[in-house]
């Protein structure tokens, strides 16, 4: 049995980039230190923080740390949780986990069904042949869920939306946007000032924490959370995830270095990157978009064609 390099207790993880084995409590302290530095920077008195809680390990830990941070620091921030029910069978179990966690923590919790908000669930489109073959159910789910969370949180009065995105997620997104040449997305990457007042500022307490660390901690601590990825994940993200995992394996710390460089580069050139990119209101739903009709409405129109058939 390997011992914790800090305290000698039984280790549950070996952090390759730091060459350090850690036990459950030392791992938690290390995660907490990184999460608190983000929360300290991004939350302040008077904020209403809505945590986008899927019931998965990442958002569950994000909620736990945010609640704990607010109580310990004694700052005047209201914390609540918002769960989107996409209507897939995979989500059923994680929604139950989310309910268990919020009742344990005594956190106000809203669950909103995608079917009620958008008029259809992801389950309904999963089996259908979608008109755009380059898109997967994952694209529809991601875009439509993101829009729901922003709109509902904003109407609820939220000043911040806290997400569970970890270091691995963010590096994948950065590389995906680079590969696609999506300059508009790159200019907004990790921006702390939303480009429109209708977009609620994001807070990502786990942005400097590896996915592996979150998983090891949640399992060891018995946090009621779903561990594992959505089985519907497809497309480019899978290939990029594999390639990045491979790089990390050969060069421990690769992902963290990449994220830090991306942050530096983008924050230094944000103004140049966003030059000429204009945000306007979507002609259909009124949400901010760089196009005439927002991505969510474009995807919804595609889905409606398939469902009505
Ligand atoms: Zn220890
Ligand atoms: Zn729209």
TrEMBL record:
2-thiouridine synthetase TtuA-like N-terminal LIM domain segment(s): 3-27
Positions contributing to ATP binding: 52-54, 58, 84, 164, 169
Biological process (GO), any one: tRNA wobble position uridine thiolation
Taxonomic path: Archaea, Thermoproteota, Candidatus Korarchaeia, Candidatus Korarchaeia incertae sedis, Candidatus Methanodesulfokora
UniProt name for this protein: TIGR00269 family protein
Residues the record lists as binding Zn(2+) 2: 282, 285, 294, 297
Keyword DNA-binding among UniProt keywords: no
Residues annotated to bind Zn(2+) 1: 4, 7, 23, 26
Record-level Gene Ontology MF annotations: ATP binding; metal ion binding; transferase activity; tRNA binding
Keyword field: ATP-binding, Metal-binding, Nucleotide-binding, Transferase, Zinc
Domain tRNA(Ile)-lysidine/2-thiocytidine synthase N-terminal: 50-223
UniProt-listed InterPro entries: Ncs6/Tuc1/Ctu1, Rossmann-like_a/b/a_fold, TilS/TtcA_N, tRNA_thiolation_TtcA_Ctu1, TtuA-like_LIM_N
A single GO cellular-component term on record: cytosolic tRNA wobble base thiouridylase complex
């Amino acid at each position: 049995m390997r011992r914790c390099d800090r305290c000698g207790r039984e280790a549950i993880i070996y952090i390759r980039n730091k060459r350090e084995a850690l036990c459950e409590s030392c791992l938690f302290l290390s995660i907490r230190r990184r999460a608190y530095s983000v929360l300290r920077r991004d939350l302040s008195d008077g904020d209403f923080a809505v945590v986008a809680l899927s019931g998965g390990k990442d958002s569950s830990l994000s909620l736990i740390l945010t609640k704990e941070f607010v109580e310990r620091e004694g700052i005047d921030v209201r914390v609540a949780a918002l769960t989107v029910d996409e209507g897939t069978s995979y989500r059923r179990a994680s929604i139950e986990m989310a309910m268990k966690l919020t009742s344990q923590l005594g956190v106000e919790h809203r669950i909103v069904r995608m079917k009620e908000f958008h008029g259809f669930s992801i389950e309904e489109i999963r089996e259908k042949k979608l008109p755009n073959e380059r898109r997967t159910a994952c694209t529809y789910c991601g875009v439509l869920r993101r829009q729901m969370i922003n709109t509902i949180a904003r109407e609820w009065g939220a000043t911040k939306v806290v997400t569970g995105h970890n270091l691995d997620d963010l590096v994948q997104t950065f590389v995906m946007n680079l590969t696609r040449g999506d300059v508009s997305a790159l200019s907004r990457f990790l921006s702390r000032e939303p480009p429109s007042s209708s977009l609620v500022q994001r807070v990502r307490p786990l942005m400097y924490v590896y996915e592996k660390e979150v998983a090891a901690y949640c399992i060891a601590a018995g946090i009621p959370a779903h561990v594992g990825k959505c089985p519907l994940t497809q497309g480019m993200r899978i290939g990029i995830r594999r390639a990045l995992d491979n790089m990390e394996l050969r060069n421990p710390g690769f992902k963290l270095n990449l994220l830090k460089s991306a942050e530096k580069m983008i924050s230094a050139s944000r103004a140049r990157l966003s030059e000429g990119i204009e945000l306007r209101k979507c002609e259909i739903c009124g949400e901010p978009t760089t196009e005439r009709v927002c991505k969510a409405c474009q995807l919804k129109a595609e889905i409606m064609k398939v469902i009505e058939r």
